[in-house]
């Protein structure tokens, strides 16, 4: 069914000039970008976005990383887009993400404390609704 998802180009992706590459892959797949902005996320917003990771060892490094530069937030629409974008993005760890995916083709391990993996995509329709409310109001 028609769905919406939240895609973030994380600070590593923006720093590496991969905004266009990520959006091009989304558009080539046939999904539609219906909201787009460049933001410097504040801690409060990120704590809400990553509430399921509170208390994990990588939580603080993750927030530091996400505050290390601007982020592109996109609302993306299409049938099955929540699962479809996760498939485009590939596995969380770019070292093992399949070639052909965003993380598999463009990501690698840089030795950081947190996994820097270029993009975020909502993991379910419910998460997408929650996350879109946080980033797009
Ligand atoms: P994301 O899809 O944005 O959701 C949580 C993020 O935390 C994830 O991408 C990675 O950037 C990071 N992450 C997840 N698991 C780990 C881990 N085990 N160690 C370090 N960072 C992680």
Mean pLDDT: 98
The CATH architecture can be given as: 2-Layer Sandwich
Please identify which CATH superfamily we are dealing with: Nucleoside diphosphate kinase-like domain
Q: Largest sheet, described in full?
A: 4 strands, antiparallel
Instruction: Tell me the count of domains.
Output: 1
Q: Quickly count the helices.
A: 7
Strand content: 15-25%
Structural class: alpha+beta
The radius of gyration is 14 Å
Ligand inventory reads:
adenosine-3',5'-cyclic-monophosphate
Low-pLDDT parts are: none
CATH fold naming: Alpha-Beta Plaits
The total of beta strands comes to 4
Strand order of the main beta sheet, please?
A: 2-3-1-4
- N-C termini distance: 23 Å
The rough form would be described as: globular
Which CATH first-tier class would you pick?
Alpha Beta
Helix content: 40-55%
Helix-strand pattern, N to C?
EHHEHHEHHEH
Enzyme class: transferase
Keywords: ATP-binding, Cytoplasm, Kinase, Magnesium, Metal-binding, Nucleotide metabolism, Nucleotide-binding, Phosphoprotein, Transferase
Subcellular location: Cytoplasm
GO biological process, one term: UTP biosynthetic process
Please characterize this protein's 3D structure.
The structure is a single chain. The chain is of the alpha+beta class and 137 residues long. The protein has one domain (2-136): Nucleoside diphosphate kinase-like domain (Alpha-Beta Plaits, 2-Layer Sandwich). It is 42% helix and 20% strand. It has seven helices and four strands; from the N terminus they run βααβααβααβα. The chain has helices at 11-15, 19-29, 43-49, 59-66, 81-89, 102-106, 125-136, and strands at residues 2-9, 32-39, 71-79, 119-121. A four-stranded antiparallel beta sheet has the order 2-3-1-4, with helices on both faces. The structure holds adenosine-3',5'-cyclic-monophosphate. The site of adenosine-3',5'-cyclic-monophosphate has 8 residues, from loops.
